[in-house]
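#struct-help
A.M.: can someone run this one for me? Single chain, 430 residues.
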Amino acid sequence: MAFGPKRLSKHAPARSGPIAGSLLLVAVVASTPAHATFGYFADGYGVQAEGLAGASIAYPKDSLAVATNPASLIALGNRFDIGADLFLPRRGASIVGNGAGPDQSFDGSGVSDFLIPQIGYAHALNEDWAVGIAVYGNGGMNTSYRTNPFGRFGATGEAGVNLEQLFVSPTVAYRIADGQSIGVSFNLGYQLFKAEGIGIFGGYSSNPTAISNNGTDHAFGYGIRIGYQGQLTPDLTVGAFWQSKTYSGRFKKYSGLFAEQGAFDAPSSFGIGVGYKLTSDLDAALDVARIDYSDVPSVGNSLSQLFLGHPFGASNGPGFGWRDATIVKLGLNYTISPAWQVRGGWGYTTQPVPSSQTFLNILAPGVVQNHFTGGATWTSDGGTEVSAAVMYAPQTTVHGSGSIPVPFAGGEANIHLSEVIVSLAVGWHV
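D.P.: on it. Structure tokens below:
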């Protein structure tokens, strides 16, 4: 039995109510922190995909799939999905061998629990055209240190950062041939950022008054995502996507912290995927993707830029020193009966944070690498789907190597992160 794009009736019903409802909930999504798993990108979009470790480029399960591959709209029919993730990260750091103070550990989980909504809608205009929208958190990072790791250098108060990224992605897809579709999403981005307790870096900034404790700033951005999905055989579906950099306005309140006077674009990404029906009841999905963190100066520039004459906030100023990340996701979906499906998955990302860059990344320890997931869907006689998923990313620690600069008395900063996500969603065919 095939699971790729399906031919729909030319007379598919047109219902716009769910779109209006999803737009009304945008403000709710915007008020909650996005989550970080693959660096600071989400592990997956849609609770069913999350149960598969996010593997959905060629294997769409609900309308949030367009946040990965917009071409999947053709396969989805008419449906509305709403769900939420309960995100439970545990992050922290330690400083060892530092001349400014004794060895010490710090807990960055002063704020520890986050509820993150997600909304999707797909609508077939006819057998060849479909439209939809997805509202989701693309990524983010939060740290909250009650004991300031930079206190030994003169910093005062609590320390931490809060980065939130909301995306609203109106999407259109077109069937170019039987079993073949393309799609495009216009990504509208909205970011919030706040930093506290890092005023000591003001002496190394092009704008010392715009580096810390300036409250929450916001910025809007835009970009595109294009995708392809093709059913090559009844059992084999392939997919691919490319997402542009999301060009964002500057965080003016933090123009002395981020390179290019407060610029913080969302990085570009691309990937390919395969979906394969192993048996009549068991499907496999495999994705390989790349995130171009190094192409965003505020993320990719090394702290060493500071000692090459480029202060924080300058055009070539320091960033978090992140490398590009390659991600692999593998999921299995088993249909027990018409009412029940179960699934599981594993995801892995190469380490984006080099051991030489852990000092500044005390504020952004997005270092987990392995992700283990499970989930299930129950479908009622009327077609309503209730899905749940859980993700566990065991603690990963990056030990610093030459990480604390000599002006800060040397030694090493070690950073760690572990995560649990529990998710629940309801989907309707409309």
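A.M.: thanks! The chain has one domain: 17-429.
D.P.: also worth noting: The mean pLDDT is 91.
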